[in-house]
Amino acid sequence: MGPPGVGKGTQAARLKTLLGVPHVSTGDILRASMQERSALGNEVRGFVESGRLVPDALMGELIGERLQREDAAPGFILDGFPRTLEQVATLERVTGRLGRPLDKVLMLVAPESEIVRRLSGRRTCPSCGSVYHLDSKPPKAAGICDACGATLVQRPDDTEAVIRERLRIYEEQTVPVANAYRERGILAVVDGTGDLDAVAERLTAGLGPVRERS
Question: Does the reported pTM lie above 0.85?
Answer without folding.
Answer: no
